[in-house]
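Class prep. Write one:
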Amino acid sequence: MAGNNPFCLSFGKEPDRYVERTENYLQISEMIDSISPSNNCYLIMGVRGSGKTVLLSTIANKYRENSKWAVISLNPGRDMLEMLASGLYEEENLRNYFTKASLNLSAFGIGINIKRNPPISDIEIAVKKMIKIVNDNGKRILITIDDITKSNEIISFVGAFQNFLSEGMEVFLIMTGLYENVYSLQTDKRCSFLLRAEKIVMKPLSLMGMKNQYRQTFQCSEKEALRMAAFTKGYSYAFQVLGYIMWDKECSLEEAVPFFDERMAEYCYEKIWDDLSAGERDIISLLAENGEMRTKDIMAKTGASPKSFSVQRDRLIKKGIIDGHERGFVDLMLPRFEEYVKLINF
């Protein structure tokens, strides 16, 4: 079709066509905007391609437009306290606060050497002083970290953040991650603080929202737009992939399916499969062959005990790969994931 493709295949980039997660946005914004928030830390979890990064970016961009907030995004692979200090200092409207307070950050290569005050030599103390100055000037701080994994950098930063909260500072943290990575971090005794963090699990996109976006983009009938939306099963990345292919190739839904399978396998499903345990793969393989199954039938075929199956089932649900809302039954949640599994098991 003529013009730029309004759909996007790049992870994390906010596309022209996407379905807003208003419920999730309001859940976070109403909490951190309150006078006495009950929680200052939020964990957004979901399977790859579920829209975690887009939601995080939407929140960060909205709050960057608010003069009462300073928003700093950190790279989890670097020294995040130094990044936070640099990020705060680079905010032009905050730099004057630090200059007026004669805060000497020259030991970290930030700002100038204010000779009348000795340089601060501990980065956590420096950041703490910076946050207090920002708070004293009527601003709150929002820190965002995308795609966390258990690392020394994250563990060190979480410990420092907990210290900031213990001193009553108005600072908030939103992190995204795969369920297994978040779980690994939470169960580390040095990060037990995260067990009390507010958790947001990414759910399927609104069927109505997807239908409306497809209908508006392709000028198709409501029935066809609904058929396209249902095909994606509400999986955020699948919504983008299908739209991208149909726009790019000017084809029907049926004609797009082979290209859809190739894209999903290459960009998404291969990595999801690689991250599964052997027991989880056995369950997924059975569901791929049979569709929705009774849990007791899966246990009978795999030989899993009720206890071990319960653990695997719970993990697959939290990972966003299977649907277990109907008691005693489970089914795959990802569109045409069964075709990928059948192919690699062939």
Q: What stands out?
A: The beta strands are 41-45, 69-74, 140-145, 171-177, 198-201, 293-294, 322-323, 329-332.
